[in-house]
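Hey, can you fold this one?
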Amino acid sequence: MAFRVRTITASDHAAFNAIQPAVSFLQTPAWAAVKSEWGSESLGWFDDRGQLVGAGLVLYRRLPGFKASLAYLPEGPVIDWASDDLADWLDPLVDHLKRSGAFAIRIGTTVVARTWSAATVKAAIADPETTRLSDVPPDTLNDAATRAHARLRHLGWRPPKEDEGFSAGQPRWVFRVPLTGKDEEQLLKGMNQLWRRNIKKAAKAGVVVTQGGVEDLPDFYRIYIETAKRDRFTPRPFSYFPAMFEALLAEDKDRIRLYLAHHEGDLVAATIWIRVGEHAWYSYGASATAKREVRGSNAVQWKMITEALAAGCTVYDLRGITDTVDPADPHLGLIQFKVGTGGEAVEYLGEWDLPLNRLLYKAFDVYMSRRG
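Sure. Predicted structure:
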């Protein structure tokens, strides 16, 4: 079937997303307002009956000194990735973006390619001969993702190299907790002993987790900056968070939440939770250096998991990990923390690039690398 791709309104895009089981929050029209430094466009795929059957948010970043732009669809578009011929879906997208002046296109699908259970991940960490989870046989393998991978390569798309300047897109490896068919007791039982003990310890210590509002973002940001200094990452400016809340709440009054964990009046942890349909994400987290022993971070995670369950979600997503299981790798602690929830490590089909002008594509990569 030949699809037509054209610009659609933000309201039509939001209505399409609303009837999907789950769509990445990065593919909501509201996300364009969050990424205001990029240009943006909502696109729709129409079948031969004129029905809207696919959608995507395109972000445009212009290369300084040129009229051409990178066209980026983070964790999108929302199309039939199990299609026998992805060319029917992607070729009209490429044609549209060429006409829009794109020098390269980056797409990023959250189709699950492989999964590893918590038990498999723990065994891999314990095995001194294993350093990468990708070398471990998965518990599940999605044949449709394997076919899509081969088809993308055939069509000229390539995964971005991990050492490229613009490679820091959306994570291909994530950790998720499946919620379907489970209650709170089963979810708690699925966690490891340390997580269960820490959740109980927080409750016994009197940690109280509440939902905050935009007016509480300065408190969140205070310990977020503290976390950034302690963990040595570059924090976002404060202005990013009110803008994110304003944009996402304008589209859905329960799209984003702020959770605050207090102990005897002191803020010990805070997190940002986002939900679209049946998928909830742990988006940002912060914890105070003081009172780490009361386990506020575990308490606030448990609150978000249980509220995702109550909201009818099928997945609670703790977002990015790396595939390392090497004890010498500093990233190991991240997967160890998340694996304690009893969920699963997931590899997505991930991000793919199609350079339309290789010289400009390389120039953009150098530009992004220098920007850090």
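The chain has two domains: 4-109+142-162+350-371, 181-313. Let me know if you want another pass with a different chain boundary.
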